[in-house]
Amino acid sequence: MEMLSSTNAPxxxxxxxxxxxxxxxxxxxxxxxxxxxxxxxxxxxxxxSRPRELLLYLSVADLLSAVAYAYGVLRNFESSTWDxxxxxxxxxxxxxxxxxxTVAVALYLYITIVRARPSLADGLLFTFHAVSWGVPLLIxxxxxxxxxxxxxxxxxxxxxxxxxxxxxxxxxxMLLAGKVWEILAYIILPILYLLIKKHINRAHDALSExxxxxxxxxxxxxxxxxxxxxxxxxxxxxxxxRIWSTVRFILTLCNSPAVNYSLLVVxxxxxxxxxxxxxxxxxxxxxxxxxRRLFACACCHHCPGSWWLATPAPDPAPPYTEESDDLxxxxxxxxx
Length: 336
Prior knowledge:
Blueprint: H1 17-43, H2 50-75, H3 82-114, H4 118-123, H5 125-145, E1 149-150, E2 162-163, H6 170-208, H7 225-253, H8 262-273, H9 275-285, H10 288-300
Antiparallel strand pairs: 1-2
Helix pairs in contact: 1-2, 1-8, 1-9, 2-3, 3-5, 3-6, 6-7, 7-8
């Protein structure tokens, strides 16, 4: 299965300094976002929940991915050196793992909310770990052992290494090392989140039948209002970020010179590296209870574990309210 012929292949892409700087900035923001997610989970146990635990594992994968991509963009490899192979292996493992964990979060919410079987969803945690870490690791080890990871001439990357351009079955390994899982995620994520959203809408409709009876009660926003809005953005952000990588993959298969367009290269670089930053914006900065704590920590220098500070720590934050509707936590019947 050959992809690029010597006569029809587009010219080798040239990665410009402006493209490198832009993608490196995206990597840095993603690293900061992942660290924020990990730190909020570690510092404030009372904010932990099973969905946020899954988000934590996703953030670890995104952090590894962003670091590996940043090194690759910085080095802008021109041959299959040893560090090219190491970087390509790490990014392949982390990127593929990120796909699996993203789907795992959606599957957990679907089973918990739509199927109303939280115990079954919790029981799948070991399976999530086995699949989301094990399958990418197995693929990466086999790819490295067969010398499939290496310099790829930036046809489907932005300076980093991935599947070697010298591999005769390169298309097959590009699919196995990421693309097939990415495309499956494009299909699975919208389906699961549409089913969840449909279930929530039905619950809202059922509740509306009792509103005349509750007319005298104090008005308050629905518990799922904020989460319902976030449902739209979870698959949307994933697809908007990742689609550019798939577009360049298809253009490469077609031997199209459009694969080298600067804007497309930049969008690909940002899309592959900014997933951790996007998750941080949506589930940390756009979650009121977490945002308040972060701002208080930044402004007052009061953080849990800051034993070297002479000033006392602030009073604990109030428990979850409707404002903390991230990852549909208020729709879930249990806490981790």
